Amino acid sequence: MTYDDLMKGLPPVAADASRPRGEEQPIDADRTLEDLIAREFPRLQRLAWRFGLPADELDDAVQEVFAKAWAGRGRFRGDAALTTWLTRVAVNHFTSRRQGWLRRMRVFHRDPDQVDRAPASGGNIETNDGYERAVACIRQLPPKLRQVLVLRYLEEMSCAEVAETLGIPEATVRTRVFHARKKLRDRMGEHE
Amino acid sequence: MTRPEPKAPIDERTLVDYADQTLSPERQAAVERHFADHPDARALVDRYRSDIALLRKGLGDVPPSTAPSANAVHAREGRRQAQRRTMRAALVTCAAGIAAFLLWPENAVEPVTPQTTQTEARLRELNERIADLERQVAALQTDALQHAAYASSLDFGAIAQEESAAIVYEAGRFYERDNRNTAVALSRYRDVVDRFPNTRSAAFAAERIQALTQAHQDEGLSL
Question: Is the dihedral of CA A46, A49, A55, A58 positive or negative?
Fold first, then answer.
């Protein structure tokens, strides 16, 4: 199978003008899947890390997102930017994969909090520092609150962009953001 | 996001918006005036900002990794499809196996044939013979008991004369007419009964059944 064959079912890709990322090049319609992966893989890998997946599962998780997106490309209607649609697929996949990972941890009697606190090799989490505590606290939040917190403050999205990505009203996003920050503050305050 | 009412109360949600710098200039100024009288609110805003700063430092980067090729993605999708095909094949195989087992001639339920009817008739006849034998054995057992009881009653009759006791045997049961020597009479009754065979034992029944079977065979019948 050649890349031309791969491109036959790929929907046209428009530049995402709503995203304030000037350094990112828009995807042309004739770019291949290879280009899409090369462009989006680091961002999705970072997103997976922020959604609480362990470091040794990041590559697998992102590959599965691309495989899911490719298999479901027929459902992409083109009313949202491709990156937004891809992010939505990724958020759903990472959330469910995180839940499955937590279940496996509990089955094998491992403490997910301990695993969460373990820094990735080469990561910048320092021991005995507030970073580690903050990471542990956000990973203990309910999935819906963790989603908005990651997208709003770590992915630097506006509330409107978060709403479009998650497919929920913007007012709901604002409410979840408030509750997420309040819960995070409460948990952080317990350790201060 | 702007807060349209500058005179609205400053609550925790307003402080979060202030920390995110999403308030209008007027509302922002109102919050800063609020800080003059509420230093704890200023501290809370600082902590909100600190939380996000810590998160950004803690979850900023991930270890460097090589992006997979499109071929790797398609290989993964191919493996998923292969797994689905394997599962479907396994299900079809299981269904075919179950169907073959149920439809195999040796496993099918045989229809009733005249031969089967003859066998059932023979079985019924044999069962009736056995039931008849069992009734005869039961009758013999009853006879033996009555015989033993009768013999013992004879002895009791002698006992009764000797001891002036009055124990009579009527219709298969003992009745005491006088309680004075009952204990002695019953003790002697047990001695008498012990001399007779245990007509309720399995050995006794088997022996009588053999005898009856032999009798039936002598009459030309057989099981």
Answer: negative
Band of the pLDDT at B165, cuts 50, 70, 90?
very low
Tokens linked to A45: 């890998």
pLDDT at B65: 56
* Contact in structure between B148 and B130 (CB atoms under 8 Å): no
Closest CA to B62 of A96, A86, A50, A117: A50
Domains in chain B, number:
3
Q: Which residues contact B144 (CB under 8 A, 6 or more apart)?
A: B196, B197, B199
Mean pLDDT of B132-143: 71
- What is the block-wise mean pLDDT of chain A (192 residues), using blocks of 10 residues? 45 45 46 77 90 85 88 75 88 92 74 53 47 84 92 92 92 94 88 66
Alpha carbon dihedral B196, B201, B206, B207, in 10-degree steps, equals -10
The number of residues in chain B equals: 223
Domain A3-190 homologous superfamily, CATH: PhyR, sigma-like (SL) domain (1.20.140.160)
Q: What is the pLDDT of residue A89?
A: 92
Q: How many CB atoms lie under 10 A from the CB of residue B143?
A: 11
In terms of domains, do B43 and B84 share one? no
In angstroms and rounded to an integer, the radius of gyration of the C-alpha atoms of chain A is: 18
Q: Is A27 on the interface with B (CB under 8 A)?
A: no
pTM for the model: 0.53
Mutation for testing the A interface, residue in B18, B23, B52, B59 having most A CBs under 10 Å: B59
Q: Does A148 touch chain B (CB under 8 A)?
A: no
Among B48, B59, B65, the residue with its CB nearest the CB of A50 is B59
Domain limits for position B93: 70-105
Q: Do B52 and A153 touch (CB under 8 A)?
A: yes
pLDDT given at position A13? 43
